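Re: weekly structure request thread

Next one in the queue (539 aa):
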Amino acid sequence: MSFISAFMALNTSLSVLTPTVPPPPAPPQQQQQHVLPYPLSPEPFPLPPNLRPPANATEHAPRTEGPDWCPTVPGRRVQCGTRPRPLVHGKPELGTIDVAYALVRRTNESAPATNTVMVNPGGPGGAALDLAQWYDGLLASLRTDHDLLLIDPRGIGRSSPVSCGLGNYLLADRPQQRTMVADCAAALGPRAAGYTSAATADDFNAVRKHLGIAKVVLYGQSYGTYLMPIYAERHPRTVRSIVLSAAYPVTFDPFGAPSARAIGNSLRLVCERSAACDGNTAVEDLRTVNARLRAQPIDTTITVGGHPRTFRLTETFLAQALTFAASSGVGALPDQVLLIGRLPALLHQAARGETTPLKNELTALVQGFADLQHDQSHTITVVCNDYTRPWSVEAPLRKRWQQFDRALAKTAPGAFDTFSAQSFALSAPDGGDLCIEWPEEGTARPYKLTRPLPDVPTLVVSGDLDNNTAAENSRLSAAQFPRAQFLSVPNTGHGAEMDSTGCGAALVSGFIRDGRLGDTSCLAAIPPLKVNPVGPPTQ
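Done, posted below.
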């Protein structure tokens, strides 16, 4: 459900075994793609030319006020600081944390700010302060009269980072990950209860109050679409309007079935719009490949620390790749054939017995993730404290498994489309069984909205090729609000307002300025994705 989850995703069924042979070569003429998930890469997706800083921006020396880590934004004054906050409310013996913020001032400070936009880039685990210049570009049309408030959530970035020994989490298989999650909770002890979205929302409000800002525009992306409704519920009188991009509701399907259904829809759409393949054939090819991987997984190799390691390509692994990596960068890189555009041909070949191209594609993809080590401690603590789960937190482990199995068995036939229920449910890096060993004592509980959300202008933006936070979930997110508009952006994936034309960003900026959705005719100019051609359907 998140940008950081995209990074976690391809490792859930990664089984590190004994050294074997060197990895196969990458597929020939493979075009560059941005598969590293936002926000781990410095610039999540390239901004279109019209959103980049103006040429003369560097003529004005950046002005920062505060600690050395304060980010610079050409032509704008940036004020930074920290606020001390209790780790766990009501338990002063557990200590405090420092929450870091940066207030990027409008370029015209001779007049009051029209709005202050408070952002969250996703995760859990996204550090907003590292993206100051990126947000300045994304919201370029608001530079003159809007302030931008960036806050690193507690436990990440410059807000007292937390670690509980999950640095090698990405190279573990699912049973190992469950054990590591339990060990993480044990290492943190009662401090684990401090890393929740509710506490982060209260931190954000404390920073807002400290800066004397009466009301804010909430702008959340991916996990930020989970965090910002929680902020809005807890601090409704401070909210002017809300924008949520790549959204999912606070209470969601822990098995991820909407994403399973979105994968087939995305294949049909890219085939139809490109005329390079037949969408129904692509879906049936995926069904065939899934069945074969269930019966006989494929072993391949990656290099870890200079040594070859074996991992197993399963149906679960393919589900992860199609849910997360296939949605990355879609719409931002129109001149490249991204993974979603290569998949119809790869699946067509694999369904007919030629599995090497698909195997090589996924091997190269996983190698990129294996090369990037990242401590997942913050992500896991928030996910296991907050997210919906199909068992009672109060139940002992054996009963939790029984509840999990019963809930999965009750899913509707075909709910996971071309995937088996068990394989897809275990592919979710922020759902499924991941947190089943997270302890009852000393930690938080899954968050549920219990009060009406504020009746303010709300925009929910969804890429129609986003398999990660599928449109089905984004519509459920919109339904949480009294006054929400839903915007589907064609030919885009996870992060629809970052399309190459700048249309999505312009619509978001216009909504922030005016509190309403403007003329959407620019959506028609967003180009369809490039897709490798596939022969006509077999008769």
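The two ends are 39 Å apart (CA to CA). The chain has 15 helices and eleven strands.
Next request, please.
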